[in-house]
Amino acid sequence: MTSPRCFNNRQIKSRGVRIMIWFVALSLCAVPTFSGSGQKPCSLPCPVEGCRGDPALNVQKNPTGDPHGFNLYSFSEFISLESKTVKKKNRAKWATAERGRVAEVENGPGAVLVGYLFDAKYSVAESCNCFRPESDWLD
Predict the structure, then answer these.
(1) Buried b (16+ CB within 10 A) or exposed e, 33-70
(2) DSSP annotation string for 21-81
(3) What SS3 state is found at 89?
(4) Which of 34, 67, 88, 130 has the maximal Cβ count within 10 Å?
(5) Is the distance from CB of 110 to CB of 69 less than 8 angstroms?
(6) pTM for this predicted structure
């Protein structure tokens, strides 16, 4: 994230405008560069199940080992992987068929997609990372 632009006092002629700009600049500096989730962070160390939320999903978001290989995907092939997703929360309530549909992708080789990153921002704190607000814990 970029810092707010600083102004030189000589660039601003009106004292009222100068005070307002300094107030806004100081306000922006006081706010973290990422937005929080509003959840109270859990204590460390954070387990792979995270804290609160869906533990089975958190385990998938916090893999502990390396995949057994990697597959290179074109953009259209990568997008087609979404056809195997299950758009439901709380994995504990998924049917066996739903779990089986995503198992090949989740437990298979890692995905490699080559491209350019146009824009990025920090996500909010998540249950898989114990709602930690520090930048090391944000994606």
Answers:
(1) ebeeeebebbeeebeebbbebbbebbbeeeeeeeeeee
(2) HHHHHHHHHHS-SS---SPPPPPSSPPTT-SSS-HHHHHHHS--S--S-EEEE-HHHHHHG
(3) coil
(4) 130
(5) yes
(6) 0.58
